[in-house]
Amino acid sequence: MKPQAFARAGLREIKQDQRHGASQLAHRCLQLVAEYARRLHDIEKSDGDALLEALVNFVAALQAARPSMAPIENLLREFIESMQNAGPAADVAESAEQRAQYLIEQSKRAIFQTAEKAGSLVGRGDTIFTHSFSSTIAAIFQNLHSKSVKAVITESRPGNEGELLARQLSALKIPTQYITEAQISLFIRRSDIVLVGADTLLADGSVVNKTGTHLLAMAAFDAGVPFYVCCESYKQSSRTQMNIALEEKSNSELQLKNMPFIEARNIYFDITPRKWISGYISEQGIRRGVSPIKNPEGP
Amino acid sequence: MKPQAFARAGLREIKQDQRHGASQLAHRCLQLVAEYARRLHDIEKSDGDALLEALVNFVAALQAARPSMAPIENLLREFIESMQNAGPAADVAESAEQRAQYLIEQSKRAIFQTAEKAGSLVGRGDTIFTHSFSSTIAAIFQNLHSKSVKAVITESRPGNEGELLARQLSALKIPTQYITEAQISLFIRRSDIVLVGADTLLADGSVVNKTGTHLLAMAAFDAGVPFYVCCESYKQSSRTQMNIALEEKSNSELQLKNMPFIEARNIYFDITPRKWISGYISEQGIRRGVSPIKNPEGP
Q1: Does A263 contact B177 at a Cβ distance shorter than 8 Å?
Q2: pLDDT single digits (tens) A228-269
Q3: Cα angle value A217/A219/A224 (rounded, 5°)
Q4: How far apart are CA B116 and CA B16, in angstroms?
Q5: Contacting residues for A8 by C-beta, under 8 A, at least 6 apart
Q6: Could you tell me whether strands B150-154 and B127-130 are parallel, antiparallel, or unpaired per DSSP bridges?
Q7: CB distance A260–B170 less than 8 Å?
Q8: Are B267 and A183 within 8 A, CB to CB?
Q9: Which of B168, B156, B224, B158 is nearest to B191 (CA)?
Q10: Quick one: which of A61, A56, A52 has its CA closest to A93?
């Protein structure tokens, strides 16, 4: 495959992926950019400047492909900046490969540390409520399965990412209740803590995550259950609610028969305002939010 | 079919029906009881007292079959009381048929009047948000389609009753957005008023309705959109949140693959507390609730 065809295929893959979270997709983007650099270098023997310009364009297209996901924007920006600051390299493609690998490792370490810090908030035997699938939340459960925790998880219509989490929790032998989104208000009362991942942390403290997160946060607040957002700092964005795009996917996922005057809608992300959030957990530690916490002293 | 077999089949039908609302099922129960009386009378030539006793037993079983639905309890109780008060009749079966018909007509008139009163709250061009399927809400839309209203409706997983409403709104040419429950908080902001039906109105002013109603009420309150419960007074119950049963249906409806440690849950009803409700609309008029109303002067 020629470099341009490879880039187009990669862009399509990132646009259409509904299986992976924002961090996982950002890692995949870095791999694609490094591979694109290698193909450009191998085939076109381009000089450093032309190759860098091609990378900048590919990166911009990848960033625009998933506008609700800050880690794609942030990690790719760091990648380009470090390439630009390094000056002319003997082998730009090799340098791109190394920088992409480094950033992926950095991000993975941050996710792992975030999961560790989140685990410290969970008490023995606690029931954890989460929504959709997040690799950070999956890592938290992996750390916690010896603490005899239980889980409440949502199916996360229409993508049913909850099923993926259910498989992982089943393998970890964590007793789990699997519910429709509509039952959130019934099961929040049986939970001790809500932990959710995020796609983007906005500048005003609000959080972009899979649609339904906002309802869960309101229900948690109403039930007096603390609601924590767990994400590494690569998810911090300088955007606000005013200039963040919420991706809408094909409405065929709702499987509604075509009818005149009826439009099925399928917005994948919503914004949970700061007022419902009890705290933010990242690799740097736990930052208090504004929503009251039942046990401020911890479990 | 012998009377006892007929009664068993009827009971099974009522237990398993997930298509019809509480009022429609109550009407069906009255038809079943009248038909049971006729079959008992035709075949067994039972005397009045024995027949009435059999009816009392069948009615008790029907009431217990759908504990979350007050109109079944109320209309069947009125039926039995009127049979008991009438004294020995020449033809108990004919009397049962007449009383059942009378109560069904009474209930239908109350629903119609409720729908008319609810319509007075809706302004020209308003967007009405509703959840699940309610025959009262369907009647409201039928009255309103000349007012150029629009609608936001939920699919109502796992039963997908929203699809039934979508078909009716499509026939009425009402422009409608059809969403997953998870998107409630996104679309409530584009709505002017929430109208929902109810299965039961509890003594403390809280409302039993299809699961998800509670989340919708919270989201409406948060967005400053008035939330009205529309139901005829046959749905008023003397029960409270403490002694109302919320029906749970088969979890196979969630279509989750069987996995150890994972239990799918399927509770069909939830309770919306009084604090989120702006008003109650019945055939007797509009009663103010405690949740603030954006335009107290009406549309």
Answers
A1: yes
A2: 999 999 999 999 999 898 999 999 999 999 999 999 999 999
A3: 95
A4: 31
A5: none
A6: parallel
A7: yes
A8: yes
A9: B224
A10: A52
Q: Nearest CB to B186: which of A158, A178, A267? A: A267
The two tokens of residue A288 are: 């208090």
Nearest to A185 among B156, B257, B270 (CB): B270
CA nearest to A171 within chain B: B260
The answer to whether A124 touches A148, Cβ cutoff 8 Å, is: yes
To test the contact with chain B by mutation, choose from A177, A178, A247 the residue with the greatest count of B C-beta atoms within 10 A, namely A178
Cβ-Cβ contacts under 8 Å, A261 against chain B: 169-170, 173-176
Three-class secondary structure of residue A163 per DSSP: helix
Q: What is d(CA A226, CA A8) in angstroms, rounded to the nearest whole number? A: 43
The domains found in chain A, sorted by start residue, are 3-111 (1.20.120.420), 114-288 (3.40.50.10470)
Q: Is the dihedral of CA B267, B271, B276, B278 positive or negative?
A: positive
- Write the residue in A178, A259, A263 that is nearest to B262 by C-beta: A178
A261–B173 C-beta distance less than 8 A: yes
The 8-class DSSP code of residue A111 comes to: H
Task: Say what the pTM is.
Answer: 0.92
Question: How would you class B255 by CB atoms within 10 Å of its CB: exposed for 0-12, middle for 13-18, buried for 19 or more?
Answer: exposed
Whether B82 and chain A come into contact, CB under 8 Å, resolves to no
What are the tokens at A60?
């911009």
- Per-residue pLDDT of A59-92, as tens digits, reads 999 999 998 899 999 999 999 999 988 766 668 8
Q: Is the ipTM of this complex over 0.95?
A: no
